[in-house]
Amino acid sequence: MAKDYYAALGIDKAASKDQIKKAYRKLAMKYHPDKNPDDKKAEERFKEITEAYAVLSDSEKKQQYDQFGEAAFHQRFSQEDIFRNADLGDIFREFGFGGRGGNDIFSQIFGGTGGHQGCNGQHRPRPRKGQDYLMRLTIPFRQAVLGGERRIDLDREGQKEQLEVRIPAGIESGQKLRISGKGGAGQAGGPAGDLMLEIIVTRHPHFSREGSDLYTTVKIPFTGACLGTSVEVKTLEGTKRIKVKPGTQNGSKVRLKGFGVPGRSGEQDGNLYAVIEVEVPKDLSDEQKELLKKLKDLDL
Questions:
Q1: Checking CA distances to 195, which of 21, 99, 133, 159 falls within 20 to 30 Å?
Q2: Residues 72 and 94 occupy one common structural domain
Q3: What's the CATH code of the domain at 88?
Q4: How high is the pLDDT of residue 113?
């Protein structure tokens, strides 16, 4: 089944609701099963355009489709989600097709809408949970490590809301937070769907992360590497002075225990590693050159 819904209807993304409906009506008149009995190709084409219309005529589904693209949309929306709350009865009645209206099309071509028959023989849908929403949330590196509160703006079925979201310490890019009940409205009395926040962590100019450990680069002079020194190291919450042992090699690491990612549920905190970078001076005075020559003569 076609997944490029705009191409299926022969329209572009700027098309209005009226243009979307007009394009669908024209194609549905051509490929409707009542006009093409026992024509499998026409039936498949009808499926394509009907699925496209079910998404693009629904402002919330269209927004999700436009925001996340075809592949991501179809990973998160089943066919049941796509046709949930879709009502094509009116548009088919306009055609004058008596035998198979919107609900009958779902039942006979798409395999049913999951409803049941009430005691009076009428079709009544079961209560269904609303569709889940997916939203990407970009947070700074420091907040991802230490946690905190984040305010987000949510457009939920035409209603704008502000939510305070708790960011747990140690969250990483690609992980998701579930906010219960902040997705699409339920059907037939069912509960609302959930909001899934996919976390994107920005890069930090001074720190990198591997699991629960953090890394930062600390520069020391050549003499400090040879004779030993002390140096200030930036942490996410301030600075810490460390000692560098004599004879420290370029690329060596000094561990600052417990200054990494906070541990969860009784786990130990991660560590911060100061990666030593020995600076080699580019410009030397004559006196410095003479001293280095003497050191060279001493096999240093």
A1: 21
A2: yes
A3: 1.10.287.110
A4: 45
For residues 3 and 59, what is the distance between their CA atoms, to the nearest angstrom? Answer: 18
Q: Which of 184, 178, 183 is CA-nearest to residue 165? A: 178
- Both 90 and 24 in one domain: the answer is yes
Domain count, the chain: 3
Kindly report the CA angle at 130 between 129 and 132, in degrees rounded to 5?
115
Whether 57 contacts 84, CB under 8 Å: no
**Residue recorded with tokens 């409803």:** 115
Distance CA 178, CA 176 (A): 7
Structure tokens of 4?
Answer: 């490029």
- In the numeric block, which tokens belong to residue 269? 């905190």
Within the chain, residue ranges assigned H as helices are: 5-9, 17-31, 40-56, 59-76, 79-83, 89-95, 102-108, 141-146, 222-227, 286-297
Q: Give the angle subtended at the CA of 173 by the CAs of 168 and 174, to the nearest 5°.
A: 105
pTM of the model: 0.57
Name the residue range of residue 177's domain: 133-201
In this structure, what token pair is assigned to residue 74? Answer: 């179809």
Q: Per-residue b/e over 58-97, b at no fewer than 16 CB within 10 Å?
A: bebbbebbeebeeeebeeebeeebbbbbbebeebbeeeeb
Structure tokens of 12?
Answer: 């572009």
pLDDT at position 105 is: 55
> In terms of domains, do 104 and 20 share one?
yes
Residue 203 confidence class, pLDDT cut points 50, 70, 90: very high
